[in-house]
Amino acid sequence: MNRMIAQPSRGIVAVRADATDPSKLVGEIKAAFEDFKKANDDRLAQIEAKGSADVVTNEKVDKINASITDLQAKLNEIATSQAAMQMSGSAAADEEAAAVKAFSRERGQDIPVEDYRAYKDGLNTYMRRGSSTPNDVKAALSVGSDPDGGYTVTPDMSGRIIKKVYETTPMRQLANVVTIGTDSLEGFTDRDEASAGWVSEKGARTETDTPGFGKWSIPTNEMYAEPKATQKILDDSMFDIEAWLAEKVADKFARVENAAFITGDGAEKPRGILDYDTVATADATRAWEKFEHINTGQSGAFAASDPGDKLVELVFALKASYRNNANWLMCRKTVADVRKLKDGDGNYLWQPDFTLRQGGLLLGYPVVEGEDMPVLAANSLSMAFGDFREAYTIVDRKGITVLRDPFTQKGFVKFYSTRRVGGGASDFEALKFLRFGS
């Protein structure tokens, strides 16, 4: 279906659905944003003159706004595809060499390429035929044996899964991701400082305070997927089982993770950024394990006058060291609301980003769309701003295990795939929220 965007001379024109040229998309975004500013200025003028805008103007603004979102998403899709091609490599030999290297690194020893190839062949046979495999295939599979049981999927396949999850889950693009070999990641926080004071040459010197350490821990939780295929397809088809399974598992993992990293409560799942308490208290006096929020001053909405002031306040509530790598995170609907905001001089706070980022720029900082972030509502934390790499850590327990089940449903083979993932906040000064309340 063709999408529609506004044009000043003709009202609306069709955008080619097959547009894949970034330069053309950039031009379309520029034109659409100019039309959006003109239409939104008309809307604001009508509100100022008679208290509300007419239906036609509101519809025009919303239609152009939606088209900008679609075009920006298309740019991001192209950027993602280009990045995926670069990750894949152009030569099969280079791809295999990288896979063998990763395979060896996970196992803590050098695995010969011949053993790696045998393992891949053995895995394919195992998935098709199960435990009735000959001894030489079982020996090949033992190269990738996981200490927790089952068979570790080849890094080539694991790489496909993780790559797809990165493409669809904003938090994995933003946060710090650590791979571990134990059941949890632990570390220390150093927020105290030693005391010091002035003293005369012969003055008494009393003992000063000694700084202390805090400790944090992020456990891993088990996540699973269970795609299935008919035994007939496995027996007769020549299709790439690894690619098929990677597609199924990645889709499941992405959707489960996406919600957990944002809204998870920490009960048998990662703890999301929205599960932590927030208070309207600055860093110097705020208790640890609480994020700071800035209130908009109006329930479920931006302030009626000078709405951008609170966004500026939020940006500068973040320490300068964190602002260097800061991003905005909000859902698509909130991005559409933000596009309408202007500063006191009449300049739009949101600008399109022509470097192939996802959601444009707000006050000069990249916007990332995360659909698990809440829409505007009373006291909602609908916008987050900060250095997510410092604020949040995702913990991957190395190894994806696959168990073949041909018994539960006759005629089908289920592939029970598991991975252990954790997540939690690691620096409560690196992230701030805009709270839509007073």
How would you characterize the overall build of this protein?
The chain is an alpha+beta fold and 438 residues long. It has three domains: 3-88; 90-145, no CATH class; 152-192 and 211-331 and 370-438, Major capsid protein gp5 (Major capsid protein gp5 fold). The chain is 40% helix and 22% strand. The chain has 13 helices and 18 strands. It has helices at 22-50, 55-88, 92-107, 113-129, 135-141, 155-168, 170-174, 231-236, 241-263, 308-317, 320-323, 332-338, 388-391, and strands at residues 3-7, 11-15, 151-152, 176-180, 184-189, 214-219, 221-225, 228-230, 278-279, 291-295, 327-330, 350-351, 361-362, 365-369, 381-386, 392-405, 412-425, 431-435. The strands form four sheets. An eight-stranded mixed beta sheet has the order 9-10-18-15-11-14-13-12. Strands 3, 4, 7, 8, 16 and 17 form a six-stranded mixed beta sheet that branches. Helix 6 crosses helix 9 (241-263). The longest helix has 34 residues, at 55-88. The chain is globular and about 75 Å long. Mean pLDDT is 79; it is low at 1-18, 87-91 and 146-156.
Tally of distinct domains:
3
Rg over alpha carbons = 26 Å
DSSP summary, beta strand count: 18
Secondary-structure arrangement, i.e. CATH architecture of the largest domain: 2-Layer Sandwich
Provide the helix percentage: 40-55%
Sheet bearing the most strands, described? Answer: 8 strands, mixed
